[in-house]
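Researcher: Here's the sequence for the chain we discussed earlier.
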Amino acid sequence: MANHLNAGLEVQEGIASQVLSGLTQEQSKVLVFISHGSGAEAACRKFAVLREIAHMIDTLVEDRARKKWNALVEALTPDVELSRNKVVEAEMLAEARRIVLESKDFVKASAIAEAANYSGKNPSSQPNRWKRNGQIFAIHYKGADLYPTYALDHSEGVRPLPIVGEILKHLADKDDWQKAFWFEGLNSYLKDRKPKRLLRSHPMEVLRAAEIEAAGVQHG
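Model: Thanks. This is the structure I predict for it:
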């Protein structure tokens, strides 16, 4: 008979007589699953699924409670009409995001893993490590992190261009979408060229442009 503990929930699995003998003095509530007419292999598969669900109960309950709390807060929050300026600002932000996404310069971690022949078990691990180390950035869109292909060097495997990490240090005050806008936008210091297009040919100029951006110089 196997026992599995899960934050106040004990899962017991075994022959009915063995489990029952251990419950004679039990005062807690009991929920029993009994396998009838199934072979040993089928029963094991069914109980394996139920066991995994049992281990997830606390997380599921907490997640549901959090969602209910957020829904309650949202329901009690009065609607506030946005000013025209805010609406225009939102429209401009949406347009900027559209331009970035339609550039087709951003891909999921799985695409990077495929190009670099990384392990398929956890393809996002290496790109995530780069991001944590400040070697690259990623925009979050529809539940997924998207990485800029222009920041990657394919000459020896796939890895971030060394200059990108140095540039990102100067853009640390920007969020990831703002970083994407900066690389995508025309830059007066770069003679109205886009920083992303010069990372390989003129990396030090792009670095200098990032330094100027960090210093608060306004570009035309």
